[in-house]
Amino acid sequence: MRHRHLATALPRSWGGFDLPSKANRVAVLDKESSAPGFWDDNRAAQKKLIEVARLRDEVESWQALKSGAASVKELAEMAIEEGDDSIQESLQAELDETEAKFEALAFTIRLSGEFDEKNALIALKQGAGGVDSQDWTEMLMRMYMRWAEKRGYGLEIVESTPGDGAGIKSATLQITGRYAYGFLRSEKGTHRLVRQSPFDADHQRHTSFALVEVLPEIEDGGEIVLNPDDIEMEAFRASGHGGQNVQKNSTAVRLTHIPTGIVVSVQNERSQNQNKQIAMTILLSRVTELEAQKRLEETARLKGEHISPDFGGKHIRSYVIHPYHMIKDHRSGYETADTSRVLDGDIQEMLEAYLTSTAGD
Hints:
Strand order of the largest sheet: 2-3-1-5-4-9-10-11
Order of helices and strands: HHHHEHEEHEEEEEHEEEHH
Shape: globular
CATH topology of the largest domain: Alpha-Beta Plaits
Radius of gyration: 24 Å
Structural class: alpha+beta
Distance between the termini: 37 Å
Oligomer: single chain
Helix content: 40-55%
CATH architecture of the largest domain: 2-Layer Sandwich
């Protein structure tokens, strides 16, 4: 029975996780949260409660894994000593399950970026390719929605603009769950599809493009504060398929951030206030991401390095459905012929391949 991988890898990851200091931090925050005056600063109190919940989840997950690994190891050693082969199959299944949990937890150590633990906002937009591009954009949206569902993440369509006859012109998804942004940040860029067009009577092969932007959901911008005087708001009626107005009142909201030129539109909620709140969150996320990118570029400039933009321009991944089946990520080199599986949301392996390939960056 194989258990050497877990026996050697778990202690190494344990050290990288730094469990003792995080467990100590949980104890400190628990003590602070029960102290008089904790809620005097509501904003600071909320941040501490979020931090302690996150740390407690990490500590308990690793402790449960360690306990499970020790249990499997003990049972395996007993079976070997007693020469009992009857339980080997069930022990192997337990070991496989424990190793799978370990691999998933160990990988999160790689997700140590500034925003990696946050929720994600995915903005999709049709590229070149007409109605095929609109259909492709909707296929990508479904792919990310299926991925979120499989991981048990929360999911909401914040905004969606129907295409001309098929698909969508654009959409924004909110995916809620720990490390959602850390995993999905690899998707930022141009995605290319090659297939026989279902919209071409001659079934000619068409190439379509869609743009994907991934943002961390920022509710507290820290040092970044949006000045209301820098924001123009326009209210308009939400539209349905074909462009018809589906509401009599102007509940949809469009915000323009004058200093950066960033524009955010939200129309899916029924009240203007709800749409405005969501739009403000997206706008703060976009401005925060822009400032983070500027800091990265400035650091690279001082080091004499060059940073290539991830969004737009050269495509990051190709999805070929005709004349053969193949998906290739042009950054990590990841390839698979199982296009149906990937387009149905089974993209975790592809996401991890990219994150592994950039681990040293």
